[in-house]
Amino acid sequence: MNDELKYIGKPQPKFDAKERTTGRSVYGHDIELSGMLHGAILRTKYPCAEIISIDVSEAEQLAGVECVITAADIDANKISFKEDHPVLKSGLVSCIRDEIAAVAAETKEIAEQALKLIKVKYNERQGIYDPFESLEEEAVQINQWQPEDSPKNVSMTFEYEHGDLEEQKSKSKVIVKRRYHLQKMTHCCMGSSNITADYNPAEKKLTLYCGTQVPFLYQRDMAHCLKMDPSRIRVIQPVIGGGFGSKLDVNPFEPICAFLSMKTGRPVQILYSRYEEFLASPTRQSMAIDLTSGADENGRFTFREVEIIKDNGAYTSWGATTPFVMMQTFSSLYKMPACKLTSTAVYTNNPNAGSFRGYGNPQATFSVERNIDLLAEELGMDKSQIRKLNSNTPGEITGQGMHFRTCGLLEAMEIVAEKSNYESKKDMEQSGRYRRGIGLGSMLHVGGGAKIYRSDGCGTTLKLDPYGCLTIITGSSEIGQGSETVLAMIAMEEMGLSEDKIKIINSDTDVKPWDVGVHASRTSFIAGNSLLGAIGKMKEMISPRAAKLMGVEIQDLVYEKGLIRCAQSDVQIALDKVVRDLHFMPPHELAEVSYFYEPPSKYQDKGFKGDVSGNYAFAAQAIEVEVDTYTGNVKVLDVWVAQDVGKVLNPMGLQGQIEGGVVMGIGYGLTEETQMKDGYVLNPNFHNYKLLTASDVPEIHFYPVETNDPAGPYGAKGVAEAPLIPTAAAIANAVSNILGVEMNELPVTPERVLKAMKNKSELTERLV
Amino acid sequence: MKINFTINGKGRAKEIKASTLLIDLIRDGLKLKGTKPGCFEGECGACTVLVDGHAINSCLYLAVNVAGKSITTIEGLGGEDQFLDIVQEKLIEHGGVQCGFCTSGMAMSIKSYSDKCKEEGKVPNRNEVAKSLEGNLCRCTGYVKIVDAAISVCGN
Ligand code: FES
Ligand code: FES
Question: Residue A446 and residue A364: Cα distance in Å, rounded?
Fold first, then answer.
């Protein structure tokens, strides 16, 4: 059937690309409402301190200041995943992002000036910035609202186990145990965080223009924080300048802005500066992973035993639940007879971590793939062979209960090995200043959403107008990932409409049907299936009327070019004419339908077992790098990516996701780190936080693997997170191979490379 | 103080302060919101506009310096009668746009560089084109398609 597809599988520029390239898209930064005030937030001076007093009197008197608030002025519930985060702090500040007061003023300048007039007296305290220290017996309790049922300074623990660990250990010929250190990383969305809150005191209604990626959960969480009825809150999502997981939580600046608007009765806007973005936007978790894994004499993997300590920061975000995804990699990437995992998210006086594209999986995959290289070395096996030998296979039900109905991992690994010429590069002679070599990495990630909430569903409403235009009102959100385009393509395909006959509405909770939000690479899969269901219902309405008007059988109808024609004869009718007939002739019906799609995935049991996603995505990468042994500099030369995408829906959008993900992965592997010292962010700007630029980008060779998954729309799987997941692992493996060292810490900076080389030569000297 | 300048082909006079930044004049004074604030530190290039044909970071540039000069922003890139400039067309065609926040700045940088190449009668190679865009950060695309688009503009 796929041969007959007209739009699906063909390159389609983004639905909104014209608006974006002409500067017409309205981002949160561009909103101006009548009477709008500008908000600004005063943050703590010290990462850990007692607040003795706050004096806002001078700030209040500054001309142009409408309102100043502190914790004493608001009646709010705490936010965050564990409800351990007050939006404005009093008594104690626990990290350098902490919000103490906020101002609303006529201009940005006045608001900034007012902040300077607020006088806060602190009593500085000794903070704890290392999670291992937080766990020591004498450590003080960092968050006074931490969950009561967990040990001191522990925010969240996960435990997972399958198989007989002891038996598998005894079967192991080699066992490798290592500790891996993974760094903090900031999303660096080009459009900084922002919100415009508009409270109407007469109606007691609050409209929020904000970049959330989960508008319906956000509406509920905001209502809880503000002590309001959720239905009085309307969330409108302006265009956002990048998400990558950063907009999954409610962050304090959002309720703060709402309070400023409620106090003043005027719209208030808060825009983060880049500095604030680095300080206050929750990062990818830093963590230490202790991974022990084994293999038998034939190279078959036997077990993985994992202990993870994560730096939670001072408060708990959704990101604390990343072990949920990490354990999938430990338990099920490659065939795995036994696995045991414990993960502990630990409070520190660092800014709180959050969720980030990949959701813990880049960290987990890094440790797994590094350990595989070490196992192969101990066994004297080829690193590609050992991976292929242990590959997951179609039909497999893993120890965790995930059912891989389709699985393109083996094929992906074969493709990258072949295309990269792995055989000829793996043991290159190493001498001289510049040395080249290659490394491998694979990954497993959910491809059809993840049932972590009561529903992982999405609603769609369709409306055909009397001019033959289709309006798709979808619960899903566009955050730059191109989901709108895929939805438009599906509608074009199924309804036989051209692009200019399709409108998409997806940004207003007052209008759109429920959806759980953008996460887990789910949007094309879930919203696509939801749209397909809605189109089916629409056709049930249109087709009988068309058949009657045309005097033909329903099963002969073909939707094409804005017409409905009969496959058996040359009778046809314009779609708009059928719609008019429905509307204007008895019994007078609207050409409107709604559909809710709930994926077949299962909520996991207490032991985290179960088929959690609609389907699963796999990928393999081979990366060739060059190391400058004088400077320690690592240059990525070529990246080969093969990814099981189920089915390519939009090759152009897909390629863009792959390239963007890989480059983000290279940044994670080589240059990006939110550096902390004693609770302060050392590099809160683009000058010192090194993003890659156009000149740093290697050749990226991409090979989609199509496994046509029966659950996905046209066979598709989610794609957006995968390309970043194995990249850093493959880079570290390449550098380790080339130099004969172990790069077990990210990012692989020149300093770390030189240090590893030095340690190695000292060791050899000692042995000689 | 009052300055006269040309914006997107039209003459304008505007009252400004000596300290007003060009980005604020454009976004707040002239209400042209297509020019984007990415960092206000001269590091990201999202705010790039053309002043007498040269790409500059409008967040570092004082508005007084445009007196008597001609500014082009993304809204004026297509000129009077075209809807899309070739730079915009190529960015769309090659898929160089995701969230779009960097796009205005990218487009202006590509425009300035390709004009310069044309003037010099030079067809730049891929590395040179990539180098010319080093001042523009993009978090979404990985740059490949943006550079593809720029190359096809420069080769035209
Ligand atoms: S906003 Fe001007 S360079 Fe970033
Ligand atoms: S497209 Fe999002 S920053 Fe470039």
Answer: 14
> What single-letter DSSP state applies at residue A179?
E
Percent of chain A exceeding pLDDT 70 equals: 98
pLDDT of residue A2: 44
Yes or no, beta carbons of A697 and B41 under 8 Å apart? no
Q: CB atoms < 10 A from the CB of A34, how many?
A: 7
Domain boundaries, chain B: 2-74, 86-154
Determine contact: B78 vs chain A, CB below 8 A.
Answer: yes
CB A37 within 8 Å of CB A508: no
Residue B21 φ then ψ, to 5°:
-85, 150
Distance (Å, rounded) from C-alpha A631 to C-alpha A21?
A: 40
B92 and A661: CB-CB below 8 Å? no
Closest-CA distance of chain A to residue B66, Å: 21
Does the CB of A655 have a partner CB in chain B at under 8 Å? yes
Q: What are the domain boundaries of chain A?
A: 17-24+457-597, 31-126+193-280, 283-450+605-767
CATH fold, domain B86-154, is DNA polymerase; domain 1 (1.10.150)
B57 CB less than 6 Å from ligand 1?
yes
Beta-carbon separation of A697 and B95 below 8 A = no
B47 lines ligand 1 (CB under 6 A): yes
The confidence score (pLDDT) of residue A1 equals 41
Ligand 2 and B102: CB distance under 6 A = yes
Q: Residue B27: how many CB atoms within 10 A of its CB?
A: 22
What pLDDT, on a 0 to 100 scale, did the predictor assign at position A520? 61
Compute the CA torsion angle B89, B90, B91, B93 (nearest 10 deg).
90
pLDDT value of position A521: 65
Topology annotation, domain A283-450+605-767: Aldehyde Oxidoreductase; domain 4 (3.30.365)
Cross-chain Cβ contact B100/A239 below 8 Å: yes
CB of residue B93 inside a 6 A radius of ligand 1: no
- For A535-581, write each residue's pLDDT tens digit: 999 999 999 999 999 999 999 999 999 999 999 998 999 999 999 99
Question: Are the C-beta atoms of A284 and A322 separated by less than 8 Å?
Answer: no
Q: Which CATH architecture has domain B2-74?
A: Roll (3.10)
- Give the closest-approach CA distance of A57 to chain B in angstroms: 29
Can you tell me the ipTM of this complex? 0.97
| Residue A498 pLDDT class (50, 70, 90 cuts) | very high
Distance between CA atoms of A503 and A87, rounded to whole angstroms? 38
Q: Which CATH homologous superfamily contains domain A31-126+193-280?
A: Aldehyde oxidase/xanthine dehydrogenase, a/b hammerhead (3.90.1170.50)
pLDDT one-digit tens code per residue, A613-648: 889 999 999 999 999 999 999 999 999 999 999 999
pLDDT tops 90 at residue B94: yes
State the smallest CA–CA distance between residue B118 and chain A in angstroms.
21
pLDDT at A3: 53
Q: Which of A11, A242, A687 sits opposite B140 (nearest CB)?
A: A242
Query: How far out from the chain centre does Cα A91 lie?
Result: 34
Q: What would the pLDDT profile of A315-336 be if each residue is shown by its tens digit? A: 999 889 999 999 999 999 999 9
Q: So what's the architecture of A17-24+457-597 in CATH?
A: 2-Layer Sandwich (3.30)
What would the DSSP string read from start to end of A533-547?
A: HHHHHHHHHHHHHHH
A21 and chain B in contact, CB less than 8 A: yes
